[in-house]
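A protein record pairs a chain with a discrete description of its three-dimensional fold. The following entry can be read in just this way.
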Amino acid sequence: MKKTLIWIGALVVGAVLGLLGLGWLNEVMNYVATVYTRLFQLLAVPTIMLAVISTFATFGSKGSGRIFGRTLRYTLLTTFAAAVVGAVLFVLVAPDNLPLETITAKADAVAESPLSTLHSQPSYSDHLISIIPNNIVKPILEGNVLSLLLLVFAVGIGLSKLPESDNKAVVVKGLLGLQELLFLLIHWLIWTLPLGIVAFSAQLSAQVSAGVVADSIGKYVLVVLCGNVIQFFIVLPLFLLARGLNPIHVLSRMMPAVLMALFTKSSAATLPVTMDTAEQRLGISPKTARFVLPLCTTINMNGCAAFILVTSLFVMQNGGIALTLPTILLWILISVISAIGNAGVPMGCYFLTLSLMSGIGAPVAILGIILPIYTIIDMVETAENVWSDSCVASMVDSY
């Protein structure tokens, strides 16, 4: 409770500093926020690798297989539910089409953005093929989480299948020792985190006061944010209640991780905090937390599924594509599959949605209108993703 109050205090202090509008202060806060984001990204890759390998090696592939099955089941159910909520809200609210001149005026926002390079990127099927690593070092250097998971699954299962011997014991003990060292570094970073929260909060406050969110597009934003809120406060708690878990207890214990996700806008960068919070505050078994949470960080993207669906429908509608029931159902499926394969990095959903819309010839210039307010959407989505990860881990652990 004390730590949570300190973090909330840091949030308030940062918001006040950002509203002051001092250029030099904003630059300092941006610098500190960047440092913290990079540090957590630095720890994210080894956290995933050591967590999955050590869990397989010590827990055994048979037990891990049951955990994997339950994790995948809850991931699919919660992600599908998020997409359905977004679709229902989109139909009920029915956002209007944007004026043609507005789309034309904002076309340069996408053309000048580095995201426009996605037009020349390989197809989504090529992306899936590229996930299969052909170099043992490349996935680590690039931080390619999906390739890393394939690699560490193979190594972990291989260790679990090795006959018991002194050599196997040395390897497993070495991995566990490295994991303990990593968690010590994470504890140190978390101890200094209030400074990072001040910086993140100031950064956001300065953007809002500068008018980043002023040019909103009304009903579309309402659908996206309301969909996230419903999933966060209604749908996911219902899943917990169905497993006999108290949603208020789980959320209060996992609040540090949810707040961290809100500001980093990266579930992968937040992973070290999520794992530490789940084990130390919520009391989830380390064997469960260190297997389920790294997996969920990669495949459990509730907020991303809702964003991909609602944004795709909005863009297609503006492009003159009729949104019939079969079309909406098809895009619910596409959004769920796409979200599962999305990277847990800032603006990952934006990248992916732009790629999907480019592939079908929809007016991607609309994404240039969304871009100025995506910071807020990305924050809410990431917080929901980490909250969903926490729910899945709690439900799996309850078995």
Q: What stands out?
A: The chain has a mean pLDDT of 81. The chain has 18 helices and no strands. The radius of gyration is 21 Å. The CA atoms of residues 109 and 368 lie 5 Å apart.
